[in-house]
Structure formats: structure tokens, C-alpha cells
Amino acid sequence: MSDIVFRSDMTADLVRCAARDSDVIFAARVSTQGEQSLAAAGTEATERDRGLIRFLMRDRHGSPFEHNSFTFFVEAPIFVFREFMRHRIASYNEESGRYREMRPVFYTPSRERNLVQVGKPGAYEFRPGTDEQHEIVEREIRETATAAFESYQRMLESGVAREVARAVLPLNLYSSMYVTMNARSLMNFLSLRTKREDAAFPSFPQREIEMVAEKMETAFAEAMPLTYDAFNAGGRIAP
């Protein structure tokens, strides 16, 4: 049997990007200037375009932010993917446990991950756990994940189909997927899956999906700096 791996990090690599601030400008101005005028206007957004982008963001003119594309390769526990797919604003292709043998890679929280929830849903916070709580989390996750994967392997070795044997695997198993979305969808995702003091509306994401969102936000900020600045200036509300 392959060695079981435990990790606490998330992967969100930008593998394909067709997104610039100028895409927003072109889409917004085509209604007044026409395609031919825009074709001669250059390909890069300038600081002069910042005001238009902020206007579009502030007044919720969202469609100009849709004419672009980001594709990320994400590796995360299955429970993170189930939260991802609550966002019906992206295209997903995930590895299949029916057609390939799943890898023995499991999530276990790092010591920096808060463990104790205080308060009620909608008005709660997480606080650090004690040494004893971290130890029991680490021990129980490692023991149950190891036992589950050994059970999975025994069924495969006996000739049971992968799609049946995978039923014993826990939600902290790592999976991988490609996810593609435009800037408008990405801003909607970030507004809900990150916790920021400068957000107009509070969000309480689970830390694991927030770790993925933070990596995606870095890529967004680099690709579309004027749009990203307008998103933050507007309270991180997607247009």
C-alpha cells in the first residue's frame, strides 16, 4: 500500500488567464463607441480608465466584468469542494473516483487553525484550541483516515470496483479540479469566502476554503489591478 500523506495546505494555481482591466473597458464602451473605434484605442487599460471601472462597480453594471477568464488548478479536501460547488457561477472538472484510484492524501489542520466555535450561527467566532484538543484532532484524523484507506485498498485488491470501494473514504481526502470563472464570478466568490474588515457585508467562511480563496485573490489582484482596487473600494461587493 502507498504511504499515507497528511497535509494542511491548499493549492490554487492559476494555470490559464485571459483577463485584463482593458477587457472591462472595451465591454463597457462598445455600446457608445462601437467596435471599430475601440479596435484602434490600444489594448491596455490606463489610469484614466480607473474612474470608469469604479463607476461600473459602484453602480452594479456587472456584465462588463464577465468578458474574461481565469482557470485555477485546485487541490483541497473534498469537503472544501462541496462548498465550492455551492457557487453555481463557475465551470468545474474534478478528478473521478470512479475512473482512477484515489491517492492516500488527507487533510489535518495545522496548529494555527482555530478549533473552538463560540457563539451562535451568524454571530460566532473561532478561538484557538488547547494542546489537548489539537492532539486529539491530530490523532483521531490520522487513525480514521488510515483505517479508511486500508479498507479501500482491501476492497480494490478483492476486485471491488473503484466506484464502490470509495464509499469508505472520508471528506478530508484530497481531490483536485480545474475551476474556470470570470472576474464577476470571482468577486462574488471572494466576497463570500474571505473575511475582511473592509467588507461592506460580513462573511464567516470556513478557514479551509478561505485559504483557497486567498490564493485566488492574489492572482486576481495581479491580473486586474484596477478592477481589484475598485472591488475593495466598493466594500468587496460583486457588481
From TrEMBL:
InterPro entries: Thymidylate_synthase_ThyX, Thymidylate_synthase_ThyX_sf. GO terms for biological process: dTMP biosynthetic process; dTTP biosynthetic process; methylation. The keyword Transmembrane helix does not apply. Its cofactor is FAD. Pathway: Pyrimidine metabolism; dTTP biosynthesis. DUMP binds at E83, F84, M85, R86, E94, E95, S96, G97, R98, R166, R193. It catalyses: dUMP + (6R)-5,10-methylene-5,6,7,8-tetrahydrofolate + NADPH + H(+) = dTMP + (6S)-5,6,7,8-tetrahydrofolate + NADP(+). The keyword Cytoplasm does not apply. Binds 4 FAD per tetramer. Each FAD binding site is formed by three monomers. Its EC number is 2.1.1.148. GO terms for molecular function: flavin adenine dinucleotide binding; NADPH binding; thymidylate synthase (FAD) activity; thymidylate synthase activity. Keywords: FAD, Flavoprotein, Methyltransferase, NADP, Nucleotide biosynthesis, Transferase. PROSITE patterns: THYX. It holds the Pfam family Thy1. Gene3D superfamilies: 3.30.1360.170. FAD binds at S63, R86, H87, R88, E94, N182, A183, R184, N188. Transmembrane segments: none annotated. The active site is at R193. Catalyzes the reductive methylation of 2'-deoxyuridine-5'-monophosphate (dUMP) to 2'-deoxythymidine-5'-monophosphate (dTMP) while utilizing 5,10-methylenetetrahydrofolate (mTHF) as the methyl donor, and NADPH and FADH(2) as the reductant. Homotetramer. Belongs to the thymidylate synthase ThyX family. NCBIfam families: thyX. This is Flavin-dependent thymidylate synthase. It comes from Brachybacterium nesterenkovii.
